Every structure is written in C-alpha cells, then in structure tokens.
C-alpha cells in the first residue's frame, strides 16, 4: 500500500480485523508493481470502452467503474473462479456465482421508463421513456442500470430500462 491518506480509514479497519499492511515508500511504484499494473490494465480497458462507444473522456469514471464491475465477474484462469465468487464464498453468501445475463455493451442506447406521475399528462402521445447511454451497473444482482442522460447531462440509476434488439433502429 502506498501510504496515501485515502487509505487511513481502511488501514484502521483492517488492523482492527487482524490485517497487517506494508507501506511502500512515497513516489515509487515499483514495490506496488502488481497493483500498479492492474490499474494500468483497467485504464486500458476503460479507454477502449470510451473509444468504442464514441463517448467523451468525461465518461472515464463510469467506464472505469464498469471495467472493474465486469473484471470482478470474469473467471480468473489461475483460481478458476471470479473475484466476486471468491469474495462471496469467503463471506459464506449462498449462490455465489454472479450472473452475466444483464450485461450490455458499454455506451449502448438505453431507454429509461418515465413513471406515470412524471409524464406530461395532458398529452396522450407523450413519451414513456427517454433515450440515454448505458454507462454502468448498480449492485451485485444486476438489472439496475446507470444511464447517462445527454439532454440533462446527469446520471440516472434505474431498473426500468429497455435496450434495442439487434436490427432495431435506435
């Protein structure tokens, strides 16, 4: 661990639970090689996601979160299980295997349902959904999506999201 102040609370918690930490010298990445390389790998993935989805660089936090979300669900070739499965097994959580069925391409078009009370009531043909871009997932169970609304430039978290099928015009 690099001794940054952002880790102080984590170190306190870890020591309380019997963990020991080795602090590396300031401004030297070499002792933290594995962690630094992993961070570089995640950066490569998020950069590729942004380019592939034709999104702007301001989306990097969402791309990074999603890259980590997906990484934690992929099977590690050495251990033959995903990091999330390993974590759930350690915590003795039943049904430890994560589902991947809800995953969609990052940056794909997403239609977020507008609840009836928020629709324009005077218009019968008022939209029942708005069009955004999928930029992430919320929670472990899936089916709760983070959608970027380009019109308002805000992030919305919703479970009521539809995605176009292959061949649909979006």
Automatic annotation (TrEMBL):
Catalytic activity: DNA(n) + a 2'-deoxyribonucleoside 5'-triphosphate = DNA(n+1) + diphosphate
Protein name: Integrase catalytic domain-containing protein
GO molecular function: DNA binding; DNA-directed DNA polymerase activity; endonuclease activity; hydrolase activity; metal ion binding; RNA binding; RNA-directed DNA polymerase activity
Organism (species): Penicillium digitatum (strain PHI26 / CECT 20796) (Green mold)
Superkingdom field: Eukaryota
Sequence ranges assigned to domain Integrase catalytic in this UniProt record: 1-91
Gene Ontology terms: biological process: DNA integration; DNA recombination; transposition
Listed GO CC annotations: nucleus
Name of a matching Pfam family: SH3_retrovirus
Alphabetically ordered keywords of this record: DNA integration, DNA recombination, DNA-binding, DNA-directed DNA polymerase, Endonuclease, Hydrolase, Magnesium, Metal-binding, Nuclease, Nucleotidyltransferase, RNA-binding, RNA-directed DNA polymerase, Transferase, Transposition
